[in-house]
């Protein structure tokens, strides 16, 4: 009975045939996407116990699916809340995102993500950009993030609409041929000679689940390039171009240089934030402003730019005026 597929409890075993655009996907990742709201631990348990079968046989979590495979998906209980929250209560946020689409074709969708929205529901949030886009594009069979942005960072986010596009763009990320430029407002006077920061980063997870990253010899090699865009009396607007893609990389590298980003709740400086508070900004001033990559289908080089939001633009105008009259 196929109608059970949309129920909160999938009471029946389902058999799904893998499509060509799902080829080469790991079975664990496939099930995570298919069984929304099911914890990872449960997915690994049903694979390990042999309740998930491919072509009637047991598989390991790293098994790569092939077009034509028949996957047996056992009945799994999904909590009702995660199934219904994303769309219904957040329709205004969903329609806001429609306005933020910078580019879209049959391969990918590029969005100017507002600050304060997570890219994924999870970590205590029932709603993220990807859930909103799925609500906006119910006919899209496939929508997956190509990369991530911190919740409070705004700007360019790439979403693949085909598995082949996702694979192609992940390959470009691995080869480091995608160039991403961010704008950050940092404390004090950034020194022009500081053009590159190479400082290894180590990720720690606190017991609360919060992630904190610090510079450490035990960390992973990390590199960010910097240039000055504009100087103000007590702050600098810098362009930051990450060469590696570590968690919180730009935020920690600017802090390491002694110039933390405005309104960074984890790595920021309270006095600097107080200086800026009177200008009306309350969000992290870090914005993914432009991206350069090769289109996965046409092979053309693409450059996409995302404008700053109103609050950030207004702050810059006020800082300019202040600097002018000092």
TrEMBL record:
Q: Which residues form the RNA-binding S4 domain?
A: 25-86
Which InterPro entries does the protein's record reference? Answer: PsdUridine_synth_cat_dom_sf (IPR020103), PsdUridine_synth_RluA-like_CS (IPR006224), PsdUridine_synth_RluC/D (IPR006225), PsdUridine_synth_RsuA/RluA (IPR006145), RluA_PseudoU_synthase (IPR050188), S4_RNA-bd (IPR002942), S4_RNA-bd_sf (IPR036986)
| Record field: catalytic activity | a uridine in RNA = a pseudouridine in RNA; uridine(955/2504/2580) in 23S rRNA = pseudouridine(955/2504/2580) in 23S rRNA
For the keyword Signal, the answer is no
Asked whether the UniProt record includes Phosphoprotein among its keywords, one would answer no
Q: GO: which molecular function terms?
A: 23S rRNA pseudouridine(955/2504/2580) synthase activity
UniProt cross-references to CDD domains, sorted A to Z: PseudoU_synth_RluA_like, S4
Superkingdom classification of source: Bacteria
Q: Which UniProt keywords apply?
A: Isomerase, RNA-binding, rRNA processing
**E.C. designation(s):** 5.4.99.-
Q: Please explain the role this protein plays, according to its UniProt record.
A: Responsible for synthesis of pseudouridine from uracil at positions 955, 2504 and 2580 in 23S ribosomal RNA.
Q: Which family does it belong to?
A: Belongs to the pseudouridine synthase RluA family.
This protein is called: Pseudouridine synthase
The organism is Gallibacterium trehalosifermentans
């Amino acid at each position: 009975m196929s109608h059970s597929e949309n129920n909160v409890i999938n009471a029946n075993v389902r058999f799904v045939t893998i499509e060509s655009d799902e080829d080469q996907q790991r079975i664990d990742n496939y099930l995570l996407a298919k069984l929304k709201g099911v914890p990872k631990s449960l997915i690994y348990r049903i694979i390990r116990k042999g309740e998930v079968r491919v072509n009637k046989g047991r598989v390991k979590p790293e098994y790569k699916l092939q077009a034509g495979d028949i996957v047996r998906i056992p009945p799994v209980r999904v909590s009702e809340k995660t199934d219904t929250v994303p769309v219904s209560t957040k329709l205004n946020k969903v329609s806001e995102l429609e306005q933020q689409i910078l580019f879209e074709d049959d391969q990918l969708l590029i969005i100017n993500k507002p600050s304060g929205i997570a890219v994924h529901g999870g970590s205590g949030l029932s709603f993220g950009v990807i859930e909103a886009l799925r609500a906006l594009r119910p006919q899209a069979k496939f929508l997956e993030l190509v990369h991530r942005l911190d919740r409070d960072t705004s700007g360019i986010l790439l979403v693949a609409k085909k598995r082949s596009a996702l694979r192609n763009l992940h390959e470009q990320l691995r080869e480091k041929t995608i160039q991403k430029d961010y704008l950050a407002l940092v404390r004090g006077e950034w020194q022009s000679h500081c053009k590159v920061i190479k400082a290894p980063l180590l990720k720690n997870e606190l017991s609360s689940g919060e992630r904190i990253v610090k510079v450490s010899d035990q960390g992973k090699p990390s590199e960010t390039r910097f240039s000055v865009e504009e100087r103000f009396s007590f702050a600098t607007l810098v362009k930051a171009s990450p060469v590696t893609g570590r968690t919180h990389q730009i935020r920690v590298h600017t802090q390491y240089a002694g110039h933390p980003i405005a309104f960074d709740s984890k790595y920021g400086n309270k006095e600097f934030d107080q200086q800026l508070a009177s200008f009306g900004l309350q969000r992290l001033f870090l914005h993914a402003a432009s991206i350069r990559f090769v289109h996965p289908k046409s092979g053309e080089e693409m450059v996409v730019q995302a404008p700053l939001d109103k609050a950030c633009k207004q702050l810059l105008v006020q800082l300019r005026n202040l600097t002018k009259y000092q």
